[in-house]
Write a structure and sequence with these properties.
The complex is a heterodimer.
Chain A (H helix, E strand, L loop, with lengths): L2 H11 L2 H15 L1 H15 L4 H26 L7 E6 L5 H4 L5 E6 L5 H16 L10 H16 L3 H10 L4 H15 L2 H12 L10 H19 L9 E3 L4 E6 L2 H6 L4 H12 L4 E7 L1 H17 L3 E12 L2 E11 L8
Chain B lengths: L3 E8 L3 H7 L3 H5 L17 E7 L2 E6 L2 H9 L1
Antiparallel strand pairs in B: 2-3
The chains are: A alpha+beta, B alpha+beta.
């Protein structure tokens, strides 16, 4: 390369435009989410002057809000929302061709000034399609409806006006009201995704079998046990196991009072070993508060050492425990049973 | 590679064109079309979506619950 060209290239790089381009490139490499957010904000400003950018803003805002939260849900339980969302603008001249197939839905998007309503509608269209898509038919229908509602609310919580619109407009039907309240309580402690949906998604392996009252009852039983766990009083005991045909799981709450009273973590280990012999395949070791978390981790470590179970998931997070924001812990121990529904 | 769920959409400013093409504009202006799920009378303002089901084109209002029913019923 001749020296003059190198000089010109350097001059371009260090000129105002060059520096800006480099800064944007680096920002895109290191902070892709932030750059995407800036792009959306920029589209929002331009949307007032250009129809093309208005459409861009409407679709990118929906995609960003749903897909970023989808990622968080999937970190809490992999593959519960296997599809990303994409908004495809139809060519209105060819409307008839889009309506050739069966079950095709074409949604009207409002002006970008009503973007909160667009987001609420997109969430309502997305969740029943994307949440545990192959397993949802095996979950008791009213319970699945309640879960859809609570998950939809989660998607809209970050946008106050979308959330208000959703809460005002979408009325919970009387027959699902109790279930919504129970699922809400479970969600407060972070167990909706990490326990309920983690178990329910396994039912997808039953496909293409028809759902039966048995699968429905087992899904309800699990929901009921997790709800009893999250609402129990400190001294109250809850039955922690489900020994169903399709769901074989146990909840193992580790609490200081109970542990100290019973002389260490031995009773938990004995319970788990005994349950393995009785056919339980997955154990959800849960704890709230610093000391209990240490104890729970010790339980998980010891079970791994002393049995064939493996730690398939572990997380410390913040949840609402007895009406207070509290550090929570969940460790999932499971046998290696890929592609098995027992 | 993550699969995508596509939402087909059009902008509200294109509604009249679409309704004319599907010969629904006059019916909606006369208040003859009802939401397939809640039975509410459809106007250009509360129009929510079109659903093709069993060779019929159904019109749905903009209540998110009705949009959800179009997907889950």
């Amino acid at each position: 390369m001749p020296l003059v060209d190198i000089f010109q290239a350097l001059q371009l790089i260090f000129s105002g435009t060059g520096l800006l381009a480099i800064a944007l490139f680096l920002a895109w490499v290191f902070y892709p989410e932030k750059v995407e957010k800036w792009g959306i904000l920029l589209s929002k400003v331009v949307a007032y002057f250009s129809e093309k950018h208005e459409r861009r803003y409407i679709s990118k805002h929906i995609e960003y809000n749903i897909n970023s939260l989808r990622e968080r849900f999937c970190e809490e339980s992999s593959d519960i929302l296997p599809y990303k969302i994409e908004v495809e603008w139809i060519n209105t001249d060819e409307i008839e061709s889009y309506l050739q197939g069966d079950n095709v839905l074409i949604v009207k998007m409002k002006n970008h000034r009503n973007q909160s309503k667009n987001l609420a509608i997109a969430v309502k269209e997305y969740v029943p399609n994307a949440l545990i898509p192959t397993a949802r038919r095996y979950v008791e229908p009213l319970l699945m409806k309640a879960i859809d509602y609570v998950v939809s609310k989660e998607f809209l919580k970050r946008d106050t006006s979308a959330f208000t619109y959703f809460s005002d407009v979408v009325k919970v039907e009387q027959n699902t009201k109790d279930l919504v309240e129970k699922v809400d309580k479970i969600d407060e402690q972070g167990y909706l995704t990490r326990i309920l949906l983690s178990e329910y998604k396994k039912l997808g392996l039953l496909y293409p079998r028809e759902p039966t009252p048995e699968t429905y009852n087992e899904t309800l039983e699990l929901e009921s046990k997790v709800h009893a766990l999250v609402t129990k009083k400190p001294e109250e005991k809850v039955s922690p196991e489900i020994r169903g045909k399709f769901i074989k799981a146990a909840l193992v709450p580790v609490a200081r009072e109970e542990t100290v009273e019973k002389g260490g973590i031995e009773p938990h280990l004995a319970f788990i070993k005994n349950s393995i012999n009785e056919g339980i395949k997955t154990f959800y070791v849960v704890a709230a508060g610093k000391t209990n978390i240490i104890l729970a981790k010790t339980v998980v470590n010891n079970v791994e050492k002393e049995t064939d179970l493996k730690r398939v998931y572990e997380e410390e997070y913040t949840g609402i425990f007895r009406e207070k924001k509290t550090k929570m812990y969940l460790g999932i121990l499971g046998a290696n049973m890929k592609n098995s529904i027992y | 590679m993550i699969e995508e769920h596509k939402i087909l959409a059009f902008h509200e400013r294109e509604l009249e064109t679409i309704l004319s093409k599907l010969k629904l504009l006059e019916k909606i202006q006369k208040g003859e079309i009802k939401c397939a799920f809640c039975g509410k009378s459809i106007t250009q303002e509360n129009f929510g979506a079109l659903l093709k089901r069993s060779n019929n084109i159904l019109v749905i209002c903009d209540d998110p619950s009705c949009i959800e029913k179009a997907r889950s019923d």
